[in-house]
């Protein structure tokens, strides 16, 4: 690993670690009566406004091609990703969703070869490391109790979510070098909010001031908006700029590992030997992929 790249690996790992804990905040908000679409809308709106306050500039698009890529990134990495994931969670097992979402790095590899060509180097050691890490994810997700129930609609929605995240990474790579990380991230949030608006034609968006005065709601929305969205997307996009789509996306394999640790600390879920073996396999697979 290049010493200059070390900080970017830390950035990617930090983003994934925070994302792995967001299920706690999401569950608390759902318990307060908010819908998944409302949570995502306010989460991205807070992130966008925070970035806008940090850098309150406005300018017309310099390139409509790039603006279309910004919109595609907001759709794939924002509204479409969260909607397909949340819909899948309502249909299929959470373990199925966690495992199938971990195919995003492999899908990124395939799409990188298709659209990025030689700009993303993919060799056998990297592919082997990715497969080993995915096997580790399977052990962590099932955590010693193998329950696999095929739910075609939910599982296909989960694969669609993984594909949209892979497409998001490709969009970022195509924008790389022409725009700053902050500008890209702000545009992603803007188009994420805009492309979510049609959903509220079917399920009206509520704006209840009493709800937002609830400390649980306000605190968790601020965490999801400022930390899990604004900060983490900036970190992720910066890592993408330096490390590339394939190497950065491999850190998604850590997500189930972080989630199960958070579940143990927050809700007392038991970690088994199978999960520990899976964690070791994830670390070994990531090490092998990075050596490539």
Give a written overview of the molecule:
The chain has 14 helices and no strands. Helix 9 (181-196) packs across helix 11. The relative contact order is 0.22. The mean pLDDT is 79. The protein is mainly alpha-helical.
Summarize the helices and strands and which ones pair or pack:
Layout (H helix, E strand, L loop, with lengths): L5 H14 L2 H10 L4 H19 L9 H26 L4 H8 L2 H13 L7 H19 L9 H24 L5 H16 L12 H4 L2 H29 L1 H5 L5 H13 L5 H19 L1
Short description:
By secondary structure, the protein is mainly alpha-helical. Helix content is 75%, strand content 0%. The longest helix has 29 residues.
What attributes characterize this protein structure?
mainly alpha; 292 residues; 14 helices
Number of discrete helical segments: 14
C-alpha termini separation: 10 Å
- According to DSSP, the number of beta strands is 0
Unreliable segments (pLDDT under 50, ≥5 consecutive)? Answer: none
How would you describe the shape? globular
The largest pleated sheet is described as: none
Describe the oligomeric state of these chains in a short phrase: single chain
Q: Helix fraction?
A: over 70%
* Helix-strand category: mainly alpha
Indicate the proportion of strand residues.
under 5%
The average pLDDT is 79
* Rg value: 19 Å
